[in-house]
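Worked problem 6 (solution included).
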Amino acid sequence: VQLVESGGGLVQAGGSLRLSCAASGFAFSRYAVGWYRQGPELEREFVAAIGHNGGDTKYKEAVKGRFTVSRDNAKNTMFLQMNNLKPEDTAVYHCIRFQGPNPDIGSDDYWGQGTQVTVSS
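Solution. The predicted structure is:
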């Protein structure tokens, strides 16, 4: 299993970024995937998740209305569109895979290396 994130960077508050996660080594369309982040204090925080067919999405309350998770099963890729970014969104964002088709929080089994997102005030 391999999960490779891209799209992070430095952006001013109010700006946007789009993260991508390229998956390989498993049947992508059969698994739920999602995003966690780790801030400067290295706390692990759930951000968003999406079911295997894109029909079930979940979000951390603080990002609802600003972030949108999506996936393209034909391309084995997941996305996180982040709008109206805030300094508190600064973190390393990790792509994760869940153990089955549904995004059951806490049932993740693989993580990518992560991509840094830094939001300046």
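Discussion: The mean pLDDT is 97.
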